[in-house]
């Protein structure tokens, strides 16, 4: 059982952190922050496609607010 827990920890916890830190070497921190803000939108899209989760009005409004905030951050940088 402990071996399975270790394998799970390796793939589900350590690997994403390693990819994140490797990506930070190539992308600026502010750009990475903007990209990470899009994670809930991607998760919602994947849940709708693979898990058939319904997309409600609240989810659409939240997604639009995230996109608007990303746009404002990108616009402010230029």
Structure description:
The chain contains 4 helices and no strands. Helix content is about 85%, strand content about 0%. It has about 80 residues and is an all-alpha fold. The longest helix has 25 residues, at about 1-25.
Total helices: the number is 4
User: Helix-strand pattern, N to C?
Assistant: HHHH
Low-confidence spans? none
State Rg: 16 Å
Q: How many separate domains make up the residues?
A: 2
Classify the secondary structure makeup into a structural class. Answer: mainly alpha
Keyword list:
mainly alpha; 86% helix; 4 helices; 78 residues
Task: Describe, in short, the structure shown.
The protein contains four helices and no strands. It has helices at 2-26, 29-37, 39-50, 57-77.
List the helices and strands and how they pair.
Blueprint: H1 2-26, H2 29-37, H3 39-50, H4 57-77
């Amino acid at each position: 059982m402990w071996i399975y827990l270790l394998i799970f920890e390796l793939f589900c916890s350590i690997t994403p952190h390693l990819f994140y830190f490797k990506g930070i070497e190539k992308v600026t921190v502010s750009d990475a922050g903007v990209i990470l803000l899009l994670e809930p939108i991607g998760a919602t899209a994947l849940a709708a496609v693979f898990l058939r989760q319904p997309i409600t009005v609240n989810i659409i409004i939240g997604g639009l607010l995230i996109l608007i905030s990303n746009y404002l951050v990108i616009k402010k940088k230029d």
